[in-house]
C-alpha cells in the first residue's frame, strides 16, 4: 500500500494570503495524484487531477504541482470559502487507491 | 450532470449486516470505462476506499475489508449496492458513493454523493 502523508495537519492563514499544502507519497506515484476540498458537513469535491490539472469549474487560484513523491497544492489568495480540509489521493496503485490524512486550512 | 445519492440505515447493531444503496443519474454503468465506488470517513478522520465496481462487472475491494464486503450493480435501475457484514462500532462513518473512470488511469473520484452517516451501536 502506498502511504500518503500530508503536512501540515493544520494551516492557520488569513484571507488574501497564499497557502501551500504538501503531500508526500511513500513511493513514486508519477503524476497520478488528485486533490479534494471538503467543507464541514459536505462531501469532498475534486479540485485537481493529474497532479496539476484543475477540474471543471475550479478557480484559477488553485494550482497543483509535483511528481514522483512530492506534491504541492497552492491557493494563491485565500478566499473565505477556501477554509476547509484538503485531501490528496494517489491513483497509480490501482485498485489500492489511498488518501492522505488531510490538511485543515483555518482562519487565523 | 452526474449525481449520486446514498440510502440505507442510519443505525445498525454490532454483528449486523449493513446494506447501502447508491442511486445515480447522468451516466450508465452499461457504458465502457465507467465505475462506481464506495468510500467511507469515520468522524473527524480521513477517507478510505472500500470497493469499486466497473461497467464490465469487475469488482475490487479494500484488502483489509475484503472478507466483509460485497458490491453489486443493477444497470437497469442505475444502482450500486454495498453490503458489509459483521458491523462493529469502529465502522461508524459517513459512507460516500462516487463516480470514477477506469480508462487512462483516471482513477480519481468525481463527483461524490452527499454521504450517509451510519452509526454502529447496540
What does this structure look like?
With 108 residues, chain A is mainly β. Chain A is built from no helices and eleven strands. Chain A has strands spanning 4-7, 10-13, 19-25, 33-38, 45-49, 53-54, 62-67, 70-75, 85-90, 98-99, 103-107. In chain A, the strands form two sheets. In chain A, strands 2, 4, 5, 6, 9, 10 and 11 form a seven-stranded mixed β-sheet that branches. Chain A has a four-stranded antiparallel β-sheet with strand order 1-3-8-7, with no helix packed on it. The radius of gyration of chain A is 13 Å and the shape is globular. The model of chain A has no long low-confidence stretch (mean pLDDT 96). Chain B is 0% helix and 52% strand. Chain B is built from no helices and eleven strands. In chain B, strands 2, 4, 5, 6, 9, 10 and 11 form a seven-stranded mixed β-sheet that branches. Chain B has a four-stranded antiparallel β-sheet with strand order 1-3-8-7, with no helix packed on it. In chain B, strand 7 and strand 8 form a beta hairpin. The chains are: A mainly beta (108), B mainly beta (122). The interface between A and B is medium-sized, with 24 and 20 residues.
Amino acid at each position: 500500500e502506498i502511504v500518503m502523508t500530508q503536512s501540515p495537519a493544520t494551516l492557520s492563514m488569513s484571507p488574501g494570503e497564499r497557502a501551500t499544502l504538501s503531500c508526500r507519497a511513500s513511493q513514486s506515484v508519477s503524476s497520478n495524484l488528485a486533490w479534494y476540498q471538503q467543507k464541514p458537513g459536505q462531501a469532498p469535491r475534486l479540485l485537481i487531477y493529474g497532479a496539476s490539472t484543475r477540474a471543471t469549474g475550479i478557480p484559477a487560484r488553485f494550482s497543483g504541482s509535483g511528481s514522483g513523491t512530492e506534491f504541492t497544492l497552492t491557493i494563491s489568495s485565500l478566499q473565505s470559502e477556501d477554509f476547509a480540509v484538503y485531501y490528496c489521493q494517489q491513483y497509480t496503485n490501482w485498485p489500492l487507491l489511498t488518501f492522505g490524512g488531510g490538511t485543515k486550512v483555518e482562519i487565523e | 450532470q452526474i449525481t449520486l445519492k446514498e440510502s440505507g440505515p442510519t443505525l445498525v447493531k454490532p454483528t449486523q449486516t449493513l446494506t447501502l444503496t447508491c442511486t445515480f443519474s447522468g451516466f450508465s454503468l452499461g457504458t465502457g470505462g465507467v465505475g462506481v465506488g464506495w468510500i467511507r470517513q469515520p468522524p473527524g478522520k480521513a477517507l478510505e476506499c472500500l470497493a469499486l465496481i466497473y461497467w464490465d462487472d469487475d469488482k475490487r475491494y479494500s484488502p483489509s475489508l475484503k472478507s466483509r464486503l460485497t458490491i453489486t450493480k443493477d444497470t437497469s435501475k442505475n444502482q450500486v449496492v454495498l453490503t458489509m457484514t459483521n458491523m462493529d462500532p469502529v465502522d461508524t462513518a459517513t459512507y460516500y458513493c462516487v463516480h470514477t473512470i477506469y480508462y487512462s488511469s483516471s482513477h480519481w473520484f468525481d463527483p461524490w454523493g452527499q454521504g450517509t452517516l451510519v452509526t454502529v451501536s447496540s
